[in-house]
């Protein structure tokens, strides 16, 4: 049986991109929408933190596969 290990680096990159887009939009929206954007930014930071704690990075980026020794 093979152990499958992988990282979520692509997901964290997408979270960073979304956070940058929201920060860029923040100055262009009405004050009523700022609360929604702030909540979205807070949830993105929280999701990135959870991924960082739960899925520790491995030595290699991407997927690494290990087989069980006999």
Structure, explained:
This protein is an alpha+beta fold and 70 residues long. Helix content is 60%, strand content 14%. The protein has one domain (2-67). The chain has a two-stranded antiparallel ribbon. Helix 1 packs antiparallel against helix 2. The longest helix is centred in the middle third of the chain and has 24 residues, at 31-54.
Please summarize what this structure is:
This protein is α+β, with helices and mostly antiparallel strands.
Descriptive keywords:
70 residues, 60% helix, two-stranded antiparallel ribbon, single chain, alpha+beta
Count of separate DSSP helical elements? 2
Mean of the pLDDT scores?
76
| DSSP strand count | 2
Would you list the SSEs in sequence order as H and E?
A: EHHE
Number of domains: 1
In whole angstroms, the N-to-C terminal distance is: 10 Å
Radius of gyration: 17 Å
Strand content: 5-15%
Structural class: alpha+beta
Helix coverage percent: 55-70%
Q: What about the largest sheet?
A: 2 strands, antiparallel
Q: Going across the major beta sheet, what is the strand order? A: 1-2
């Amino acid at each position: 049986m093979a152990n499958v290990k992988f990282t979520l680096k692509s997901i964290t990159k997408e979270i960073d991109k979304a956070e940058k887009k929201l920060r860029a939009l923040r100055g262009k929206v009405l004050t009523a929408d700022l609360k929604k954007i702030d909540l979205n930014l807070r949830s993105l930071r929280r999701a990135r933190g959870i991924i960082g704690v739960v899925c520790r990075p491995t030595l290699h980026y991407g997927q690494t596969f290990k087989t069980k020794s006999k």
